[in-house]
Amino acid sequence: MLALAGAPIVALALLVTLGSCDASQTKVCIVGSGIGGASAAHFLRKYSGRPQNELHIHVYERNSVVGGRMAMVDLLGDRFEAGASILHPKNLHTVHFVGLLGLKKKTSPDSETFGLWDGKKFVVRTMDGGSSFITKKIAGLINALGMLWRYGSDLFRMRSFVSQLLKRFLHFYDEGRTPYSSVKDMLESVELYGYTQHTLVRELLREGLSVQIITEIVTMITRINYGQNVSISGLAGAVSLCGSGDDLWAVEGGNWQMADGLIKLSNASLGLSDTVLSVVSKDGVYEVTSSSGKNRTCNAVIIAASLDEEKIVFSPSVDLPKRSMHHTFVTFVRGLVSRDYFGLKDAKLPDLIATLEVPGIPFISISVLKSYNATDNAYKVFSRASLSDEFLDKLFSVRRKTIRLNWAAYPQYNAPETFAPVILDGNHLYYVNSFENAASTMETSAVAAENVARLLLTRLSTDGAVFNSGLNTMAKRGSEEL
Ligand SMILES: Cc1cc2nc3c(=O)[nH]c(=O)nc-3n(C[C@H](O)[C@H](O)[C@H](O)COP(=O)(O)OP(=O)(O)OC[C@H]3O[C@@H](n4cnc5c(N)ncnc54)[C@H](O)[C@@H]3O)c2cc1C
Ligand SMILES: *[C@@H]1O[C@H](CO)[C@@H](O)[C@H](O)[C@H]1NC(C)=O
Ligand SMILES: *[C@@H]1O[C@H](CO)[C@@H](O)[C@H](O)[C@H]1NC(C)=O
Ligand SMILES: *[C@@H]1O[C@H](CO)[C@@H](O)[C@H](O)[C@H]1NC(C)=O
Ligand SMILES: *[C@@H]1O[C@H](CO)[C@@H](O)[C@H](O)[C@H]1NC(C)=O
Questions:
Q1: pLDDT (tens digit, 9 = 90+) per residue, 46-56?
Q2: What is the model's pTM?
Q3: Residues of the signal sequence (predicted)?
Q4: Which structural domain, as residue segments, surrounds residue 265?
């Protein structure tokens, strides 16, 4: 994979005449230094083939660090992913970034046990494999048989649904694709749009899955990955199910390093702790005003942040369909989960405790991030509301340190989905995060940003050149493996 990713991308070195007004330098301003903004900067630099003195890229970031929803938290000396944590092996842009930037991948441990809690008991529990190879193997077998006993061929139907959609998604890496100015057209081009128009539960029932696997396993996964139940769209649901298989990975030392590396590689200038307040279009250029008090004139502006909770003033104003962000509360605890809470006397608690969508359970999941000794672990708890000290004192028998985060995490999904335009003003104001109504992940932000970079360069170029990612070979190989 990585060797292929490093293959020369000759076709991309096409030089284009950027149709800017007077000066020879074209200025592109990007709002946001998350994976979307960083990818946009990277692809603009790569596809244009132009150095900074011809194509100036500036990235605005209101935080004091880059990465956005890729961020770390420090819990008594160890650092953990606080936001986006896992990637899929077929996330070809991010796989490529890691190779390009010389970062290291780390894979998740394979022997995690899980339990599904209904508020009174564990409805499903996998066994602990112990430490020796042979017991691990037997436990794996019993778990697989147990799961097979409970869900039967539904497990295969679930996997086949996911791989069908993944196969279509891989066409986003095809060579020679035209850039899209509408998310709907972009999704239709790979036959995924329909899945944004119906709920996941409807799609899975159509595939013949039983109500039992949907309300148990599938709901558990969508709750963990999107904080929401199976009423999210089929596409967001399939993406969420992708984040539950084997071979998931993360960047060693933190996923935010992808954004950091891409911004540096693209030679963009970066303004940290600088919030964009307004974008005013006049005389064919944009005047961007930010909290630093300095105005910047840009030929094009790329918004690579979700505008739902932002207060950027656009003039003339732009029209966006209403969308609210789902808030996910992440609580990190160093200590020990109480066995009493789960009514267990001596059995070991699962590494991942997930919950069903039933009223009265205040949390979505608890997972062990690291074990220090028998009474000292690092945990990550997801919930839909802030967890009180009173509740945490019931859930944990020991609590040495608690850190609470509240993320405007991803859209509140609501099929049928509507999408904001990719070009907000018919001119050169672009919006990467209109794609988030399809799904919100690091990879999909990169896919959306790559499309915006191609769209911008194609629309600015005088010869209508179309730009490509060069990942086609990887995608082909990827779909053969499915
Ligand atoms: C708890 C949690 C878990 C997740 N888990 C996963 C996962 O396991 N795998 C996965 O792939 N995805 C996951 N996601 C989703 C993933 O984090 C996002 O889809 C992705 O990181 C979005 O990247 P982005 O660049 O589009 O937006 P962001 O990362 O939000 O970047 C936008 C940036 O713009 C900045 N900004 C906003 N407004 C302004 C302004 N006016 N001026 C200047 N700067 C501004 C923000 O500070 C931010 O840094 C998770 C998200 C959360 C919250
Ligand atoms: C990026 O910056 C480095 C160091 O300033 C310079 O050597 C390199 O040529 C620049 N590359 C581009 C594409 O601008
Ligand atoms: C699933 O979530 C939706 C939207 O929040 C809600 O209306 C619905 O009642 C939930 N379904 C179940 C089974 O709880
Ligand atoms: C910056 O731009 C804003 C909005 O266009 C304008 O009101 C303001 O006068 C400008 N400031 C400077 C210093 O040019
Ligand atoms: C486990 O670690 C904690 C704190 O790091 C310490 O207080 C406790 O004594 C240790 N327990 C055992 C059994 O080693």
A1: 999 999 999 99
A2: 0.92
A3: 1-23
A4: 2-69+252-324+414-480
